[in-house]
Amino acid sequence: MLDKNFSNAQRAEVLTQALPNIKKYSGKIVVIKYGGNAMVNEQLKEQVMEDIVLLSLIGVKVVLVHGGGPEISDMMTKLGKKAEFVNGLRVTDKETVDIVQMVLAGKINKSLVNFINVKGGKAMGISGMDGRLIEAKMKDPQLGYVGEITNINIKPVEDLLSRGYIPIISTVACDEQGNTYNINGDTAAAHIAGALKAERLIMMTDVAGILMDKNDPSTLIGEITIDEAEKLSEEGVISGGMIPKLECCITGIHKGVQNVVIMDGRVPHAILMELLTDEGAGTMVKGEKHV
Predict the structure, then answer these.
(1) How remote is the C-alpha of 118 from its chain's centroid?
(2) What count of other Cβ atoms lies within 10 Å of the Cβ of residue 110?
(3) Domains in the chain: how many in total?
């Protein structure tokens, strides 16, 4: 939000400076992966929805892909079921995948649709099972119904975009036998953005981006190529939970996304800072060398 002490002239100047970026992204597809702390904090959630509605109103074709791990765990606790994880992935038996579907495709998805509609947007919520958008197979029998994506049928999303809707996608998938699978949200977003040949994939997380020193936010890397990122990964600079995020960035770019940004979803209006200012926010991962 602009400071209350800003004059009308200063406000107009801010909008004028944003104009080149508005032109750049108008008519283009931007996929946003949303979850984590930015989702469970109601004030931040409201700001994210405002950002998405604003982008839609200036002509950006926004697709929102959401997770909901904390909410799934909370619901499991309420139902007397303990969450188990193997290598960071939720063990998902038949009962758990029913809970996942209920929470993701039901409660969370429809609440986000409602949020955007209340803010003046035009949203439509779907799951990966609708129109067989996300097809999957069992990733590992010991994980149960955790899915590995085998195919993306992107037409349902394209149809919604062509009609002016903001598609909001929950990451549950299906197979030909009718089984339901829990899909990692970052992975699903990368595949969907690739299938759409999106201008940008924004991955909202709980860190500023890729850091040279993980304990020092001032060492944020503003822009990096895939080759440079892979080198930092080999050297151990990129480690822990950032490794799978980076792998999703690479997947998205290889599948057709122009570039991917990893950024801190806890920063108010971070999406607008990234798309509508020259400074941007977070780390941009690119496929080609810097120019």
Answers:
(1) 21
(2) 14
(3) 1
State the amino acid at position 81 in one-letter form. Answer: K
Question: What is the pTM (predicted TM-score) of this model?
Answer: 0.90
Rounded distance between C-alpha atoms, residue 75 and residue 81, angstroms: 9
Residues ≥6 apart with Cβ < 8 Å to 5 = none
User: The domain that contains 133 carries what CATH number?
Assistant: 3.40.1160.10
**Residues 135 and 84 sit within 8 Å (Cβ to Cβ):** no
Tokens of 66: 């959401």
Structure tokens, 221 = 């890397």
Pairing mode, if any, of strands 166-170 and 61-66? parallel
Q: Is residue 6 part of a domain?
A: no
| pLDDT average per 10 residues of sequence, the chain (291 residues) | 59 76 90 80 86 94 92 90 82 92 94 94 96 95 94 97 97 95 94 96 87 83 88 83 85 92 87 83 77 42
Q: In whole angstroms, what is the distance from residue 28 CA to residue 130 CA?
A: 24
Residue 261 placed within a domain: yes
Structural domain boundaries, residue 95: 25-286
Query: Residue 264 is encoded by which pair of tokens?
Result: 């801190």
